[in-house]
Amino acid sequence: MTRVTQQTARIVFFLSAAVSAMAAALVFGFLLVFGFPLIGGGEFFSLLARPWSPGQGLYGFLPMITGTAAISFLSIVFALPLSLGTVCFMGGLGPARISRLVDGFVRFMTGIPTVIYGFLGIFLLVPVVRTLFTSAGSGMCILSASLMLSLLVSPTMILFFKDGFDSVDVRYIQAADALGADSVQRLIYVILPEAWPGIVTGIIMGLGRAMGDTLIALMIAGNAVHVPGSILDSARTLTSHIALVSASDYDSLAFKSIFACGLTLYVLNAFAVIAVRKLGGKRGQAR
């Protein structure tokens, strides 16, 4: 590659990063400006702790924040072992032919529309949860939404995990083979420690997709506007709340509140990404 080509590529990549950063900043500014009627006067933090009751003039997001956090993090708890187990099978524990089939199936799952997962949840998963847990009521609850969301985010996590596995220096693997390591030992002592950055990235992408998904939570979680007390309670997420309230009168405070909801979701996503990256950084330094 010539010097001119390298310089051109550097400029193109810099411009791409700058445009992405500007787009993220513009979205943040847009939400901040349109949410100002509720955020102004220093009431933003009080909105985070208040209930949602428009009839009483209360437009707080506490039920939606707890619902979003419960459904998103629980879906990652379900998806992480499923994704890690699948990529370990594809990464050397399983037969090569079956691993290729699993890889193709995972890539196919990434293209399935979210609404299909929602329909599967309503007609297959919700009746099972309703039958197994009598306290789950209709079956539309945090547990049902989390289980279905875990299926949605798992293909994304698996592909990022696989990229992490593929990035491991082949010399490390050859050294382990030369020392007589079997496939399990090679996986535990060589591949997993070296693939940690890819695993962290996959968790971040999965968590971001779980927090940002609207349809599954809207169709399966029950949309109850209260702080859930257990995973069998119904809940409403921030994205579902935005979708449901967006049909309100444009001049009402209820409609303006969705911009503050979007801002809250933006900040929650940012905190989650920073926290997981910090955790990954500490793990990398400790190695």
Describe this structure in a few short sentences:
This protein has 287 residues and is mainly alpha-helical. 76% of the residues lie in helices and 1% in strands.
Task: Tell me what the structure shows.
By secondary structure, the protein is mainly alpha-helical. It is built from 13 helices and 2 strands; from the N terminus they run αααββαααααααααα. The protein has helices at 3-34, 36-39, 44-49, 62-93, 96-109, 114-132, 142-166, 170-178, 183-194, 196-212, 215-220, 238-245, 253-286, and strands at residues 52-53, 58-59. Helix 10 (196-212) runs antiparallel to helix 13. The longest helix is centred in the last third of the chain and has 34 residues, at 253-286. The model has no long low-confidence stretch (mean pLDDT 83).
